[in-house]
Write a structure and sequence with these properties.
Blueprint lengths: L4 E5 L4 H13 L3 E6 L19 E5 L5 H11 L3 E4 L6 H6 L1 H24 L3 H6 L1 E7 L23 H20 L3 E6 L1 E3 L8 H10 L4 E4 L5 E6 H14 L5 E4 L4 E3 H15 L10 E4 L14 H7 L7 H14 L1 H10 L11
Parallel strand pairs: 1-2, 1-4, 2-3, 4-5, 5-6, 6-10, 7-9, 8-12
Antiparallel strand pairs: 9-11
Helix pairs in contact: 1-8, 2-4, 4-6, 7-9, 7-11, 9-11
């Protein structure tokens, strides 16, 4: 059987790099990573596979349709895993244009390049081809105290980021329904783990605690998220790509609901263990003005992927968080250049 060849867009980002490491390192897949290398991309995240003969990198913008056409023709993939996106809600509040450009027009550009390539394949390869559009649970909006997001939940995005991702989802499904293009969509809960850019909650709290700096918690910290370890997510995505039903959506969640304040307290407890000289780290918690349009609660019903495809998250929040905190403490060479040159922990998303 020939080795599978997959284009991964956004493969130098947090989730994308985990997907690339998993595909090349554990599944023996040949990968072309297409990434624009924006501020949140980091080729150091790909060091474990950088010299592997089955890993290839192309610095390119998915909005460049001619460039995407060339990439498809040159690499001749069997599938696409589309993860390239602007993804930070706070940045979308003050700079929405880049989110619309990448998450909407970029998705359109990639769909068109992939469709043109797919149409020229022979019957057997066309039947095997798959396009997985990777999205977020934020497209569903906010839950109250009860209930879960299902694949049938109506879209109700609250931020420019989630609105742009919802638009990308609609484009992908429209390409399936209009052109018969072999699309699948996944919607995941909050990811965490190694190699996450330190503007996101968990790495920001770890690094601020390490430096004895305030741990800013929005509002009263009551906002709830369902946490999913990025390596569990990578496994789920490859499973959806291989075995999911075309034209279907699959929600991926870790069944690990925690309020933001609970997450920060858990990080503080781990930091007290691993860096006791700074204890108690909870003294650093500082409540700050909430972010505009901050959804109260997200929670994923992962029954479909669990029942149809047999996927289960391997990490509990406790095991995954401990591994994550340890990783940041042991990998200063990865995060220090980002902290010093790109993002120093300042507040983002404030409306003047």
């Amino acid at each position: 059987m020939e080795r599978m060849k997959i284009i991964v867009t956004g493969g130098a980002g947090f989730i994308g790099s985990a997907v690339c490491r998993y595909l090349v390192g554990e599944e023996g897949v040949e990968v072309l990573n297409i990434d624009k290398l924006t501020y949140a991309a980091n080729l150091a995240s790909l060091a474990p596979i950088a010299d592997a003969p089955d890993y290839h990198f192309l610095q390119a913008d998915i909005c460049d349709r001619d460039g995407m056409h060339r990439a498809f023709e040159d690499f001749a993939p069997d599938a696409v895993m589309h993860l390239a996106a602007e993804s930070h809600v706070d940045r979308s509040i003050t700079g929405a244009a880049e989110f619309l450009e990448t998450n909407i027009f970029g998705t359109f550009s990639l769909l068109e390049a992939a469709r043109a390539y797919w149409q020229r394949l022979d019957d057997a390869r066309r039947a095997r081809f798959r396009f997985l559009h990777v999205s977020t649970d934020e497209v569903y909006g906010s839950l109250g105290a009860d209930g879960l997001f299902a694949e049938t939940t109506a879209y109700d995005p609250s931020s420019p980021y989630s609105a742009s991702k919802a638009a990308g989802d609609h484009l992908a499904m429209a390409w399936h329904r209009t052109y018969g293009f072999p699309v699948l969509i996944s919607n995941c809960s909050n990811n965490y783990g190694p190699c996450q850019f330190p503007e996101k909650l968990i790495p920001l709290m770890v690094l601020n605690a390490l430096h004895g700096e305030p741990l800013p918690v929005y509002g009263e910290g009551r906002n709830v998220r369902d946490w999913l370890h990025v390596e569990d997510h990578a496994r789920a995505l490859f499973l959806i790509l291989r075995e999911g039903r075309l034209g279907e959506k699959y929600n991926v969640g870790g069944r690990n609901e925690r309020s933001n304040l609970e997450v920060v307290h858990a990080i503080c407890a781990l930091m007290d263990r691993f860096r006791p000289r700074g204890a108690p780290h909870e003294r650093l918690i500082t409540f700050v003005a909430d972010r505009p349009g901050h959804d109260l609660r997200y929670a994923i019903d992962a029954s479909k992927i669990e029942g149809e495809l047999g996927w289960r998250a391997r990490e509990t929040f406790e095991t995954g968080l401990e591994k994550t905190v340890r990783w940041y403490l042991e990998n200063e060479d990865w995060w220090r250049p980002l902290r010093e040159r790109i993002y120093g922990g300042e507040r983002l998303g404030l409306i003047a």
